[in-house]
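Appendix C reproduces, verbatim, an entry submitted by the partner laboratory led by Prof. M.T., so that reviewers can inspect both the input and the predicted structure.
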Amino acid sequence: MMTHMHPAITSVTDRIRLRSKDTRADYLEMIRARRPGGFARMKMTEGNLAHASAGCAVMEKAELLGGGWPNIGIITSYNDMLSAHAPFEHYPDIIRKAARDAGAIAQVAGGVPAMCDGVTQGQEGMELSLFSRDVIAMASAIGLSHDVFDAALHLGVCDKIIPGLVIAALRFGWLPSVFVPAGPMPSGLPNPEKVRIRQLFAEGKVDREELLRAEAESYHTQGTCTFYGTANSNQMLMEVMGLHLPGAAFTNPGTPLREALTRAATHRAAAMTAQGDDYRPMGELIDERSVVNGIVGLMATGGSTNHALHIPAMAAAAGIQVTLEDFADISAVTPLLARIYPNGPSDVNHFHAAGGMGFLVRQLLGAGLMDGDAQGVAGSISGYDREPFLDGGKVAWRAAPEKSGDLDILRPASDPFSEDGGLRLMSGPLGRGVSKVSAVKPANRVLEAPAIVFETQGALKAAFEAGKLDRDFVAVVRFQGPAANGMPELHGLTPVLGILQDRGFKIALVTDGRMSGASGKIPSAIHMSPEAARGGPLARVRDGDLIAFDSEKGTLDIKVDSEIFASREPAPFRPNESSAGLGREMFSYFRQMAGTAESGASQFAFLGGET
């Protein structure tokens, strides 16, 4: 295994460290000042402590009042509508028993909302999706603010839930934290067949009954959806950043190994408190190297573009400043080692069986792309090239496979699917954004075509259904940013645009909104900033303007004289008349205060300990 880091990775890490010097120092000063001298609850008054222990079983109450055992707070995102989070229903009982076995107490400190983007995709409720991340962070903070905990376990999997939990965990960075996943559902209908049925339905060639059958066979039981969208990208990220136990990400729910990993996570949390010999506070565990490792993992696996929003927001919670240039420069030197749907036909269960996270980490460490000296809850990241197995009913670890079990899914760094990670920084007169090209055929990555401007995704669908889009064009879908309507995912456009591309037309999408973490073959420039609702350049684009789209070079140009373009009156943002209802009106403050897409569209501007 190589001991020297790739110079480009070292360079990015160093510039993040330099850029973040002051904010990181302020952050560390804040969390170090809160390191407890004893068990956290012992600073409470007798009345405070009586309330904190009143609901406990007799043994736990005795230990809480007597101060003999550490107390682990559980933040849970359980609900039984969200398949990935339904398994968490029984986790608190497992954790409480495991904590008792480890000489600790565990209490559910709080629950957080957990939106299923699969349910709200293309629906009005999706306008709350991105903002749910920051609500989750605040709800987690309320649970932890009781300040009677010596460590925390965070139960979460899906899209905005994990980033929200991480933000809160970092603001309580003096506490050790372990993230506890639920795992993916077993494989269902093959992904290419699901896509085929969706496109046939969009063309009116199959009925709704056939579509529903295909969808139900794809999403069929408890566990994470098996495609490699944001939810499973989250699990990869937590592992390479060291917040999981090694190999925890993709073990299926309801299995003996899954339960053993949950027990082991509890034991680990109990062992990392400030009163023990292996204190691992979250805020010091996660540093610039951890963030870069996370971006490397994202690029090596072709992960979700949503993390171009979430990683800067999470890093900022620890005083670490990340830019789109950091993503682009890491992508340029990180080979694509995995093809998981939508970047290929296989799902995360196939990835796991082919060698999974242990093989991936081994390859990235060996290529000098991942910093093995970064720390995780189970030790240094150099030890995350292992996989779990059951030994006498308890979890143990062994070396991950040295060879991939399927080279169509997972490859060594010496023989990658492509030489780079497939994420591009897109910039030019229309602003700055990102493009994911790992699933886009090279022939489709460059085009020049007239713009057709839409202000809702429904308007684009209506134009398609009316037969008005059978031509080369660049779809400009504007007023989709955080300040406009909360930046909903535009995944509902994927079948329509896919059909047009399959018909042989050269098309691309340019938007200040998001695409799904599962978006695939359509060339797109997303997260464009500044957004149209705040006077960004997309508000000046007109139908027929010639747009040059080049995701190989990362350029996005408009063939209109710069003075003429600048003199145009921006199109006014008109909120959707039906924007009230489903609670959307309650989030007007969030839309007003949201940061730019480049900064993660966050509600929070962290400056050391001040927010």
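The chain has two domains: 7-186+221-399, 423-599. Additional entries are available on request from the coordinating office.
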